[in-house]
Amino acid sequence: MIMPGAGLLFLSEFTQIDFRGFHPDDPFPEYDTYADPTNPRVRYKIICDIAKREGLKTLRDIYERISSARGHFEVTGTPEQIADQLEEWFVKGGADGFNVIPPTFPEDLNLIVDYVIPELQRRGLFREEYEGDTLRSHLGLKIPENPNAKKREKVTTTPSSIG
């Protein structure tokens, strides 16, 4: 349960539309109400799409739905069910990777690491070994030359040139 004032403030900050003077049970306004061709308010549009798809009607419905995942795709279920959903998105080209935002830390992150990742590895969808020691090497990228690095001239000294 989210306190109404906190929910309306979150929704205001998230959408860049001031909902603080509204009542939590007021209807969520349609996208066209606040559409602005110079500022499309992408997050607001995403939330409107979620509201229509899931039948959410009030501001309270919306802030309670999006507060945990910030309007992003949420996956819940058993490790196998979660792996099924991630696999479907990946195989159908809907995603090439995922950012994980566990509801609690470290408890829910540990559940993902201990149960979901092994299931994804069993399916061949998550690596078991890394390619190298850096992100660049994991992605198979070469190390670029530093254009700002000065090339040092090789200096040699001989006993006669010292002192």
Automatic annotation (TrEMBL):
Keyword Flavoprotein: yes
Keywords: Flavoprotein, FMN, Monooxygenase, Oxidoreductase
Name of the featured protein: Luciferase-like domain-containing protein
Organism: Paenibacillus cisolokensis
Gene3D superfamilies: Luciferase-like domain
Annotated signal sequence range: none
Region annotation Disordered: where it falls in the sequence: 141-163
